[in-house]
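Pipeline run #58 for the internal structure catalog. This entry was flagged by the ingest filter as a single-chain record with no existing model, so it goes straight to prediction. Upstream metadata was stripped on purpose; only the residue string is passed forward. Reviewer on rotation: M.T. Logging verbosity set to normal.
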Amino acid sequence: MDQSKLTVIQKNTSPEYPDSLLFIGNTWREAQDGARLPVVNPATGHHIGSVAKASATDVDESLIHAQQGFQVWSRTPASARSEVLDRAAHLLRARAPEIARLMTLEQGKPLAESLTEVLSAAQTIAYFSQEGPRIAGRVVQARLSNTQQLVVKEPVGVVAAFTPWNFPVNQAARKVAAALTVGCSIILKAAEETPASPSELVRAFADAGLPKGVIGLLFGNPADISHQLISSPLVQKVTFTGSTPVGKQLAALAGQHMKRVSMELGGHAPVIVAEDADIERAADTCLLAKFRNAGQVCIAPSRFLVHSSIEKAFTSALCARIQQIHIGDGLSPASTMGPLTNQRRVTAMQSFVDDAVRKGATWVAGAKVDDFGGYFFAPHVFTDVPLSAKLFNEEPFGPIVAIRTFNRLQEAIQESNRLPYGLASYLFTENLNTLHQVSQDIQAGMLWVNQAAKSAPEMPFGGQKDSGYGSEGGMEALDAYLNTKAVSVYFQPKD
């Protein structure tokens, strides 16, 4: 073993934030080589704890346990699996306040948003617990009287799931609940920046009575772990939420091994504000949708396309509401927007701002935030943003609003579809003809009309084009975790 590659962090002694462990074979434990990674509170920039960094040996052990767990769980009746998921949802609800506190400490979002996320995850688990027992094949009418034709649905096997830091519990809950309810086992590779809250999600499932090995939790080097898991012959299904470039790399690797894949990737959501839109409603809605989690949301509105006749009124209304945002530590009850999750995001936001100014966009709202000590970045609003600016070509993933005008609805639709992204989209209109045209022509997996995004567990959640494929919501989410088997039975006629 090359000792120079080990990262050994002094263990945390603060009761406020626990050090995180790996979960392998129903045991919470350190990495075999003792390696750890630091965890930082983005509101202060200070280290608050650490997380175990899995080695290749740890990953191999997790795979073996997951395969053994699958042999048990896949043969467990669907009704019994449902009961375990129901108990996990109940435990998550009961523990939600403490899990939310941990999430805010490690991720930065306001405590109210963290609590909403944990409760939403519990709702997702409860929904999938009921959908699992409803999975059914079918009987197909045979062409011969002495033949029976069946279509059977079976769990695909061991799942490797990769989840991000922006919604560390809810994104994981979607994948875990969908996999478990159909009978798969799952290894969750969660984000190192936010390890404590997904650990509590896994703890809820373990405490609910999952058999040994059915769920595992790893942290460590993302590239190394993803390559090892996806390349393993034991893994049959890969699910990833994250950036488009990384998603393409993982999809390519999975393709080399013929692994089934679900990808929920980056978005750059267009917002069409038609000339007949309710401006006050649109401004209120966009404020909530855009600045939730400091804009670090894959379905956040990003490219604002506003009819020229109402652009000034809409911009004024939005800017007035932005002035009411209270930026600060997410644990403070007064805070309505927390910090960005890491320094990389602050640097990225500043590059978007500098590029917009350099390209000739008009700055109408924003301020420097330099007295908090953490990774804070104030909301910014730009109008007259040229199409050459980064803001209209790359997802900012932060609290920056970019506005352009249009005169004909078709112009807005064309601009919405110009980029290779197709995750979320938004429309504000009171006109049924406008609604019909946009809903028919928009190239996106999701369209929200006169409302902020509401990713209910019973609705499909996924994108088109470079924003990925597959769903993480609704009945459609279960398809990716199931194999379809055709069974044809011939019965020998009796004399």
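catalog note: The chain has two domains: 3-264, 269-464.
catalog note: The radius of gyration is 24 Å.
status: ready for reviewer M.T.
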